[in-house]
Please model this.
Amino acid sequence: MLTDSPAPTPDRHTPERTCVACRRRRPQAEFTRLARVGGVWAPQSGVRVGRGAYVCADSPDCWQQGRLRRAFGAQAPAVSAALVARSGPEHRPDPSGPPVAASESTPHAPGRVRDGSHRR
Model:
């Protein structure tokens, strides 16, 4: 027997991406896409060409050099500056704020102990 009620429609798929800085998964529309074209990473809008990475569009904490270094390496300062310049003045860091310590801005592996204690 046929029923007059319409078939349930499945929920539309919403693509999700992961922020390269904070590793949080969110809908793709909540990110700024960065593309690597010609060996240089830069924010991109419109046509999607080149290797891509996503950064939270509404979180200035994710735009800090130290957080971007894992994904962008030596280009992290330029990417950070491009993201800050692209945002409005409400997202710019306060110049009178506390300075970032060197250990926070440049992550590195702990040094190896070379005192011979590993030998018997």
Observations:
- Residues 16-87 form one domain.
- The mean pLDDT is 78.
- Residues 76-86 form the longest helix (11 residues).
- Residues 34 and 43 are 4 Å apart (CA to CA).
